[in-house]
Every structure is written in structure tokens, then in C-alpha cells.
Amino acid sequence: MAPVHIGALLFDYQAIDVIGPIDLLNSCNKKYMSALQPLTGAKEETVSHAPEFIFHHIGVDKEPVHLLSSDITIVPSATVDECPDLDILIIGGPDPVNFKLHPKHADFLRKHVAAGKLLFTNCTGAAVAASTGVLDGKNATINNLAFKLMKQVYPNVNWSINKKWVVDGNIWTGGGAVAGMDMISYWIKENYGLDILSQASSMLDFEPRDIDGVLNVLPKRYDESGNQLPTHVFP
């Protein structure tokens, strides 16, 4: 299985919008899953078909970027001019009122989508994508609190907030930050199987919701009396 290159445009986004999904994806990574196997007790058959992800944090240049939240500063691992070909691009959510996407980032995003590559946006990251025109005529969602404003600012996008995420072709848009992790969970399950998702999510003690926000993605467990037990089983 060839490595999957995943990139995130690095600008002043809310940390969890990108770090949450990437941490979940990294928990699926064969190298990471294998290294922690003595601790987690992951089954060999699960580890054997785990994917290999390579992550890139893409700046306009190599200058460190201080994030909108959490007082975190990230140093880019690549620039838009030298980034390897990506399979997946993740866009986190900035302040949708005052943020302006750098033209180099905008061009990078447009080319990625035009090439038919997979785009994930999380939270107000959909506003970033909308600002480049790639969401025109597309179905998309966004953080519920930004919904009314974005309908006014980007009227050519078919905005909705009745689902936790929306898929339109190669563009996946997630609502609030954790809804983006739910969206990524669904993608993991569909592409790599429930066992990979279960193992990865257990490593984070995270339980994903479905597209309607219901906790029914992972199998439930019950005791002999029918009382629900914690979903994850730890060694």
C-alpha cells in the first residue's frame, strides 16, 4: 500500500480543527500502531493492513505560525513551492470575519481541488475554501455559529447545517471542530475498515458520532443485565 500524503495549510486556525483529525489519522498509521502494539494489544491482523500516512504542514514560507487558539506555534514542514504531491488537504478554521487567505495558499488549494484530490475542511475552514471559489455551486456545511453569516458572504455555496458533515464530490466539509473528527472517522472506516477505526479511536479514548450526531459508529457493549458498558475495551 503506497503512502498517503496528507497536508494542512498552515495559517492562524483553531488548533483542534487540524490537530484533532491529524492525531486520529496518525493513530491509524501502521508505524505508530505497531510501535504501541505492546501497550495497546492491537491485533496483528489489524496492524498488518493499517495505512501509512505522511503529514505536511504547509506554510507560505518557513516562518513559524502562531495559531488562533491554545498559544501554539507551528513551524512549517514544507512551503507551497516545495510541498510534495498531496493526496489529501485539510483546512482548519480561522476567525471567519477577519481572516484573509494568502494568495499562494489560495492558489495551492484551487489546484489541489481542480486535480480531483480530496479536500477536508473543518469548522470555519469551509469559509476559507469558499473564499477561493472552490465551493461555488457545491453543498457544504460549516460551524453552526457561522452559518447565517456565510450564507450572506458566500451566497453561491449551498450551505446547510442539518448534518455533521457534507460530502460533495472530492470536497468534504465538517461542522464544528469535533464534527470534523467524526467526518474523518467515517472516511477511515469506509477506506480502511472498522477494526482500524476502532483501534485508532481507542488509543485516543474517542468515540465518533455518525453524520446525524448519534453515537452508533462503534459497536455497543452490554453486561448480562443489559446495562451499557464503555465502548472501548482496554488490555
UniProtKB/TrEMBL annotation:
Domain DJ-1/PfpI: start-end pairs: 55-186
Gene3D superfamilies: 3.40.50.880
Transmembrane segments: none
InterPro entries, A to Z: Class_I_gatase-like, DJ-1/PfpI, INH-QAR
Signal peptide interval: none
Protein name: DJ-1/PfpI domain-containing protein
Organism: Fusarium kuroshium
